[in-house]
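In keeping with the milestone schedule agreed at the kick-off meeting, the structural modelling team has produced records for the first pair of proteins. Each record is given below as a sequence line and a structure-token line. The laboratory manager (R.T.) confirmed that both were archived under the project's standard naming scheme.
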Amino acid sequence: MSREFVVAHVVPTGLRASVGGYVGDATPPTNKMAEVCDKVIVHPNVVNGVMLNCAKENVLYVEGYHLDRFFLGETALREVKQNRIGVVLDHVDERHYNFGVNQVNAVKANKGIKVTGIVRTREKIKDSVFRSKTGAYIGKIGNPEVIFEACHALLAEGADALCLSAKINVSHKIMAEYFRGRIPNPYGGLEAILSHAVSKKFGVACAHAPLQLYSQRLHDFGIVDWRGAAEVVSTAYLGCVLQGLDRAPRPVPVKRAKPSDWRIGDLAALVCPHNALGGIPMLACEERGIPVLAVKENSTILRVTKERLGLKNVVKVKSYDETVKLLKKMRRR
């Protein structure tokens, strides 16, 4: 389309990014970029803030699998006025289920989202979370078919976006370490596996929100790392995801794209942490000659840098404020 100035902001999940490694803490720099760009493309965890989603209206909310396909030139993004959202809730006890339904209804009442239905999986989603050799947390799903069945039912009811919510088994001890800023997000990797699997199978806008209910123990954590504070004042994670999916662009195969859809050729730049440059978005931009702005202010547990990979199209930027200034200059060219 190439008629507007479009950038992407990617913060890989579960790598203890100093900006974006918690919940919604990458929203302020994203919004600063949105002030100088026509569109900013992000994946959900960049702007998800538990009950809050404070991203500006010109921020496009795209699930990670679809985002990768976008960077590979296989998928285009079609903006919509509003999606019809189907909600999949884990097969949890009545207390958790009621909490999930109340979250959906709260956002529906206050934001006017369209919900086609809520389906509880026929059995508990069998998930496990563990730490990899790199220090990142990843996960495994033992029975993805129960998620797929629920998604099928919601799509048959007319949903064109899917909100997933599983009760993820993470110990209180691990969460305490996370809230102290000592370890990466322990459930983000599993969330990515869930949403990627559904996105790949059904090809619709999708995102995941943990279905956690431990409010009676939140006071145990004391005053936490400021970037994780949203999680100890509310565990209503469905709020941010439903708000994001409300206007999330629809992924469309490039062969069926319209002139008004966004393609990789429309992208002016990619912004990301300086030492997490090994993902599909970064390597695809390198191959296509799209500038990658590597922000030194944002560091992860990885050491995948411009020098280590021999990347030639990466521009090191000290901070997000400098990134915004550079984007302004790029736009004027």
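The second protein of the pair:
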Amino acid sequence: MSENELRRERGVLAAEPPPGWAAVREAAGSPAEDRPPEGTRTLMAFCGAEAVARLGMGVRSGFAGAPGVTGFVGWYEAADGEAGAELLRQAAADLFGSGAERVVGPLNGSTWARYRLALSREVGIGDGAPFLSEPVNPPKYAEHFEAAGYRPHLEYESRIVRDPRPDPGLIPAAARLADRGVGIGGIDMQRYEEEIRSIHDLSLLAFARNPYYTPIGFAEFSAMYTAIRPLVDPALIRLARDAEGRLLGYVFAYSDPLARGRRIVLKTLASHPAARGLGLGALLTDAVHRVAAERGQPVIHALMHLANLSENISRRSESAHFRSYRLYAAERP
């Protein structure tokens, strides 16, 4: 597509997305998405009257590990790669003009929302099919970002334990924690909101150093967990508490509805900073593996940053690579 065929339109998202916003996603073959909040700056590309690429963007301070102002591009879809790359270049220029020190993407405003690109999907059959909460996008989107001058920034992966089993090597760690008065139990569904409040409070501490993390309030956090309550299986949510009942760690897993419940997704593993190094994360993971072993189901360890402790725990479990993901960044010229 030549430059004179391409028309760009800037906007600010109102109550309804601009004309053609959803059509780009459908033309690109991407699944349903989370919608940008009202007020998000938008950029769209048209070839004639047809929308062929689109994105949302913004700037914010306070991302963990990213001093100063960071620009982000998200909600990216493109039916035409050249048009998509042109939009990504223009978005970076606009955001640098708004004071950004760097531009990262795809990131839908926050790491609590969809972010990262899923890379090649050669294993998209059988138990390699996408799982609930996994980023799903056409594989060529990575080429769009790189053509626009963005470079690989952070790497992530999911791994799969095809034959989960209890780990006898964790018996000493379990004994040490028991001596400290730490016990692991299930979530109390009769006190669901109170349990979620404790999980929220711990999450703010556990994830505070994760790249590009920003805290969210309890109301927003609670809404997320209320929406997924139908998926909650108390056997797959394990909470570790000390002798005074304070939450020290948790694991959140669920039977994947996209696989008709034939596999388990371990989505979140968190421990209090003061409790790290005690083997708590490995024991919580092992608790999920024990349930999976009883059910004869594989476990996916989902969306781990390659430098995260959960990656080490996963590899201890004889896991195999499932899929890779990447966050891109463009630096100020």
